């Protein structure tokens, strides 16, 4: 049995890691699909697909999760939303069910007869990536909300500086 979770993971946080563990408790394997992979250096999508792959890989390794049970893949955002679910079937390894709490995604997948499970969420007010990006900019103890590997990686690439520059309105490009 293989479970699929999707997200932009900008950045990957402890809520995401908890979801990986929930899926591995219920399934043999997990597919972690990084969505909007073509977007980067934007306010909602600051990090590249490659950087997000590294953050996720390092976090799983650090948590001693068996990497042979995990696929980490990057997929582009699709222009045609009605055909998104069939795109998922062709772009990803076979999956048996999708873990998502998002009603919009549930509707799209249900319309293609794909099974959707609603996972448990770690406290969403803290564990959400938009909040964490804000905390990084204001130096607000964000490190406790992400795996140590993500904190180290963001330090290494100077993620704070990137977020600061991207969030300045005079330099901001048009968001998708
Ligand atoms: N606190 C959480 N606990 C468990 N799962 C979560 C949590 N937050 C997000 N997820 C899961 O991660 C996926 C979405 O990832 P994504 O990075 O887009 O979320 P996000 O943290 O809400 O990001 P953003 O705030 O940038 O929109 C969803 O499938 C959701 O099920
Ligand atoms: N058109 C598309 O490519 C498309 C459509 C619906 C959802 N998505 C993405 O899939 C992910 C779904 O994540 P959750 O359902 O788990 O919230 C989100 O990152 C969302 O942006 C992409």
TrEMBL record:
Main location: cytoplasm
Known catalytic reactions: beta-nicotinamide D-ribonucleotide + ATP + H(+) = diphosphate + NAD(+)
Biological process (GO), any one: NAD+ biosynthetic process
Top-rank lineage group of the source organism: Archaea
Record-listed E.C. numbers: 2.7.7.1
UniProt keyword annotation of ATP-binding present: yes
Compartments where found: Cytoplasm
Keywords: ATP-binding, Cytoplasm, NAD, Nucleotide-binding, Nucleotidyltransferase, Pyridine nucleotide biosynthesis, Transferase
Record pathway: Cofactor biosynthesis; NAD(+) biosynthesis; NAD(+) from nicotinamide D-ribonucleotide: step 1/1
Cytidyltransferase-like domain span: 5-133
Enzyme class: transferase
Gene Ontology CC terms, in alphabetical order: cytoplasm
A molecular function (GO) term: ATP binding
N-terminal signal peptide: none
SUPFAM superfamilies: Nucleotidylyl transferase
Protein known as: Nicotinamide-nucleotide adenylyltransferase
Organism from which the protein derives: Nitrosarchaeum koreense MY1
Lineage: Archaea, Nitrososphaerota, Nitrososphaeria, Nitrosopumilales, Nitrosopumilaceae
């Amino acid at each position: 049995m293989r479970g699929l979770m999707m997200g932009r993971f900008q950045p990957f946080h402890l809520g995401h890691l908890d979801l990986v563990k929930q899926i591995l408790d219920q399934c043999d394997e997990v597919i972690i699909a990084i969505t909007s992979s073509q977007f980067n250096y934007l306010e909602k999508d600051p990090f590249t697909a490659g950087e997000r792959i590294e953050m996720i890989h390092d976090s799983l390794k650090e948590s001693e999760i068996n990497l042979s049970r995990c696929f980490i893949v990057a997929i582009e955002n699709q222009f045609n939303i009605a055909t998104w679910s069939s795109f998922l079937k062709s772009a990803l390894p076979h999956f048996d069910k999708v873990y998502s709490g998002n009603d919009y995604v549930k509707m799209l997948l249900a319309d293609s007869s794909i099974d959707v499970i609603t996972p448990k969420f770690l406290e969403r007010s803290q564990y959400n990536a938009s909040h964490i990006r804000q905390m990084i900019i204001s130096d607000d103890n964000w490190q406790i909300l992400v795996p140590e590997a993500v904190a180290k990686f963001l330090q290494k690439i100077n993620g704070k500086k990137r977020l600061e520059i991207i969030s300045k309105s005079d330099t901001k490009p048009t968001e998708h």
